UniProtKB/TrEMBL annotation:
Lineage per the UniProt record: Bacteria, Pseudomonadati, Pseudomonadota, Alphaproteobacteria, Caulobacterales
Top EC category: hydrolase
Keywords (A to Z) from UniProt: Hydrolase
Protein name (Swiss-Prot/TrEMBL): Class 1 fructose-bisphosphatase
EC number: 3.1.3.11
Amino acid sequence: MTRTRLDAHIAALDAPEGLKTVLTVVAATCADISKVVAGGALAGALGASGQINVQDEEQKKLDVMTNDMLTEALLASPAVAGVASEEMDEVQPASNPAGDYLVLFDPLDGSSNIDINAPVGTIVSVLKSATATPTEADFMQPGRNQVAALYAVYGPQTMLVLTTGAGVKGFTLSNDGDWILTHDEIAISPDTKEFAINMSNLRHWAEPVQTYVGDLLKGDEGPRAKNFNMRWVAAMVADVHRILMRGGVFLYPWDRREPNKPGKLRLMYEGNPMAFLVEQAGGKATTDGRQAILDVQPEHLHQRIPVALGSANEIDAYAGV
């Protein structure tokens, strides 16, 4: 049986050649990142780097390594006008600007999981560039403007899940280093009995969120009249991947610990690309159950938002509390 490879899928896309080039570069770099992640302690890649990123978070060695890998590969491509990363303070324009695309990424989502050998991933968003010499202002486009979004999840298998606005497809990295189509037309079930949230923060959530989760925990004896299971990997890429594979909802709401911050997750590097994938798979992706993430107008590069995404009917239930 002939299996579709990612390079053949990209070549067949009804898309500009520049976008195909960007996707090819990202996929190749994610395959290389998979090798580095798999090497772990043997490659000297575990532990902290001793650096603090723009988010005021301690960087892992692999945060720095993977950020450098993606940045260098993308800026070397003539299709790319500039890049932005969760790990970098500012946008990086190409040194010889001529490309049509802006690429934003979280190079290693869930990097706190690295030292315990739990799933991590890379998240990527692609926008059209209005200029050959982009500044931060050129990146401030709502998620609806994305021309592609993808993530790679590094777990028991390495998978790359991609949308260019015509559905969602999943590719698995073979032992030979090829991305092979294994999940065609990924769709999220509208109903679910599974939710993902960090329950340790319950006391910090707004009352409606506490009420919603409390109703889930009451199971078939409560107002939802069915039993729910909770899952939490502590890496957005892994939790969203589970939802795309079998349904569910992922919630990361505002909480009182940092009341001046609207949320924890980054709009440009996590919210927008994941929202694009979830919507293309038939789910919903919102800030609060009501406002679509893809309609949020970015105000700055490292903007944070609350997130509620996944099975459409369950997100509607969340909005109704």
